[in-house]
Every structure is written in C-alpha cells, then in structure tokens.
C-alpha cells in the first residue's frame, strides 16, 4: 500500500504536503490538517494516538510503578522473540531471546524486581558505599586505589601554578565524567576522611572513595570503569527532573585514557592506571574498543594455556573504535552489543570490567566467577529498569505526528523512489521495519505486530551488504569465527561465553551483520552509527550532508581566567550546545591540515575524502593482526594539553571510523526528515 493510502487508512489528524508524500525532493515544510468528521468508521487501531507510550523503562518497571511487592510480574515481552514471530508483518524480527539460566534467577514479583534492581544500582553507582566494585576488583575486600593525597595533586599534572578553586569541576571536565548527583566524597588536603564523613571534596561518577566493610573510609580512590563509558550528562538552563548526570546513557563524553594517565602521573609510579594506559583502548574522547574480545581472551584466560594460545588472540581483525550503547535500551533488546554478539540474558559480560583479575590469574577464578554470578544478573535487572531522559525543548505535535506516520509507514523502496540501496529482506521498508514500532497506533495495528507486547522491541539483524556502514566492527567479529563458521574450542571455554553467541555467530558463510538498535531516547544518544561517526540525526537521514570527514564537538567554555590553561570536556548544555533542528550536539568541521588532523599521516590535504597512503597501509596491518591496534602510541603516553584536545577530533580516515552507509535514507525529502526528527524527540 502506498503512503497516501496508508495515511487515509490511519485517519490521522494531519497530512504532509503533496511534495512530501510524493517523495519528489522538495524541501518545503507545509503541513495541512486532514478534515475531521469525514463520516468514515474508525478502525480499532485508529482509536490509539500516534504519540505517547511507555518511553522506555522495561515492561516490568512500568508494571510495578503502582503495585506492591507481592504482585506477580507479567512475562517479559522478549520471550516472544522466537523463530517465526511476526512473520509477514511490517516489523521484522530475526534476533531471538535466549534464557541463559543465570545463577540469580530473573525476578518473579515486583518485590524481587526492586531488590535485584537495588543491588544492581549498588554495583553500577554505589559511590562511597562499602564493597562497591571497582575496575577488575569486584569482591575484593581491600582493592587498590589512588591515595587522596595524589588525587589532590592532579593540578600539578595539568601544569597549573596552584590548586584551582573549581578543582572538582575541572577533574570532571578533563576526564569526561560528570560530578556525581549523590554525595561522593574524598578528603581535601589536611582532612581526615573518618572525621569528615569521607571528606568535603566531591568526586565524578567514574570514581569513588574505597570504604571498608565496617564503614571506615580509606582515603583511597578507585575507578568504576563501566561508568566512564556508559554515563553522560545533559544540562538545561530550565532544569528538568531527568536531566543532569545520566546514569544509563548519553555517553560518548568520557575519556578514561586521560583519567588513567593523570592518576598514574599523580601517583608518581607504575600502577594499574599506568598499565592500562600502556594498552591503546581508545584513540578518541567518547569512544573506544569496548567490544575488544581478543583482550578478553587474555585477561579472562584463568592462565589456561589453551586460552592463551588461542589463535584468535593474535590472528583476527582489530575491532577498533565504537560507541557505548545506552543501558536505557537494554530491556528492548533480545541480543546485546552493536553486532548481536551475545544474548541479552548473558549477564556475566556486563561486569567483565569488574571481574577480579588478581583472583582469576592466581588460581582463584572460582571466587571471581562466583562474585560475578551473584551480581551481574541484578545489575542487568537494574539497567533494564532505566528510562531515557525526556527531550527538554519544544515539540511541534502536528509535525511529530506526521513523523510517526512516516517512521512506521513510508516504504523507502516504494513506487517512484528508485532507491538504489539494497532493501532488507523483511518488513515494510520503513524505519520501523528494522528499528521496531513505538507509536501506540501502530503498536496496536495487527499489520505491524501480532501482539502489542512487541511494541518498542528492536531485534533485527541486518547484513552489512544492506546497511553498508563502516565494515570494520562487523568484519572483525566474524574474524573470531573459524573457517567453518564455528568458534575455536578454546573460545568456547571462556566464562563469558557460557550462553553461546548471538546471531552474529550463526550467519551463513560468516556474513557480517549489525543489529538495528531500539530508538528510545535516541535524541540524547548523539553521535550516531555504531562508531559515533555521524554527529547528528540529520546526517543519518541525509547521507549527503552533515557527514563531515573530520569534525570536533564543541567544548564547554572555560572560565575567563582559565582559558588556555585547562582542558574542558564536551559542552552538555542543551540551550547552548544542542542543535534541535539537526538533533545532535553542535560541532566544528575541520579540514585536513588543521591542528590535530595529522595531515599525510592520516588524511590527504587536497583530497579530503581519502585516507592517506600511510593510513591505508596501517589499516591493512590492523585487519591481519588485531592486537597491533592496541599497542602503545606516543601521544597516549605523553598526554599534554594539546594531545588531549586532539582526542576530541573525530577523523573518519582512521581505522574503523568511517561515516559511510545507512544511505537508503537518501530518498527522503527535507520535509520528511524534519518530521522524522520531530517524532524522534518524543521517544
């Protein structure tokens, strides 16, 4: 059915201009209302609004909002995601749910949900609480940390003449971790933490003062590395209950490499932070080799020679840089990571960065695994209860309603569009066919979903030959499989692969794939694509614009007396730094040859769309021997102020950082793009 027929069937309260509906390429913004009281009988789904709905937060959390602890939970909608589900419907699913039989069983009542979620919160954000886990030290009674005395000397590492009066804020800015919204104390110089309830300083979310089981403050500061990748910040001059530090997403602002460097330098010797900095995990602020499974084969080998000699440690492709998916979408996924790497219920991997390496590599792996099993399931439950922040700006309701129709019903390969991009094998050709249905009207339309319980779920794996974004991540994941498509026996013994692989490990002929993500809160998740290469949604919807080759997100303005002396983080002020028309954070486009762009080494002056010859050669090496990407780099070992500023530059010529693909949206008109953007603000 064509677009005009679909809108007539839906009986919506508006109609886009004829140019928009015909897809002829005009970019006017005319929106005209559909006459009401036409005398036509409404279909059942027309009784539902185009906008509204749960707005994320999993079905259990939403169900329990007004229920007591004894209330039995309904089934998890993801349990419906089995082979054959929704076949022939407008929304397609091909990535299925798997129950992993975790040590802590999934909750059955609202009370169990609340108790598990509280334990998960403690794991994720238990700042200043006894026993809260730290990087690679979950369960340790006396984990290592940086002395507060050294932390208080960070200003010396920065080259400042004295401790600034806004020291805590500057740490948060430089390391890209917002100050905790809760009390997260550390002792200032001369303070005894046990006489001052931890101290009068305030730490960023990524750090916490270590506290003994009896409540004694130690004066040592540990790192919660998961927070460094997954948390973020969105501020507004107008305030907002769900704005400020974001505990479950809006990431892409952290730079744990800078944090590790600073803490190592301040400590004046070799430490865990120094060791981590010897490995290149990230080349940019806000992204990194988060799914670096080759390193996991080493770190979580338990010292087993079979695991350490796994050929996939060395002879597989480097994964490179990717962005962290927001936790607030976890409840709407059947499989996790950008490439459907593991079942979502495979919870052990969620706390891999808190796995007790000292225990694991010293013959006590059972202890490390027991702690992980006791906490990873509850952490996952907590993450699944999180909801995205509400868009704080004004929303044009009529335009958003038009966008809802386009999102769910416009076939991008429809009559007259002549879309040259490959079409997905299933679904109606709309955005919703891959990303799921969100509008109550479409959720209740049996042509879209066989049951409304499937609303908001996204579980569709797309071949790279269709999505055509940067291929490195998907290709690298397939390089972990053997020639016959299976996994090496050593790999199968990994503790974190106890529930098998996701859909990526089951594709025919090792076909590389990506998993279309849910879009709850997508307005707050810039930059976009799996590798954070596109600064805003307009660029996703129009592959011919807003896709700069080299760009830099704007930074928070420094105080007048500190300009040029301090490193500020990305600007997270909505009114000042957010582009509501394009749906993403403001940025500056750069040219090859500008400061920090590495001309000739990475890019080619005068040929802006090409990597340099040297970079192409390096890319070939990374494709053959993945661990080469993780070797130390000079700029990562030095980290002067200019090096840190350069890490804010996103260069699409670097390995894994291309901004191509998702180009089937080229057939949209600008009017349609504006409507879709307005609709995405409502999710």
UniProtKB/TrEMBL annotation:
Region (Disordered): 175-202
Protein's recorded name: Cytochrome c domain-containing protein
Claim: Iron is one of the keywords in the record: yes
Domain Cytochrome c: 196-359, 398-683
Keywords: Heme, Iron, Metal-binding
Sample GO molecular function, one term: cytochrome-c peroxidase activity
Top-level taxonomy: Bacteria, Pseudomonadati, Pseudomonadota, Gammaproteobacteria, Nevskiales
Gene3D superfamilies for the chain: Cytochrome c-like domain
Lyase recorded as keyword: no
Cited PANTHER family: BLR7738 PROTEIN, CYTOCHROME C PEROXIDASE-RELATED
Pfam assignment, any one: RoxA-like_Cyt-c
Species: Solimonas fluminis
InterPro entries (alphabetical): Cyt_c-like_dom (IPR009056), Cyt_c-like_dom_sf (IPR036909), Cytochrome_c_Peroxidase/MauG (IPR051395)
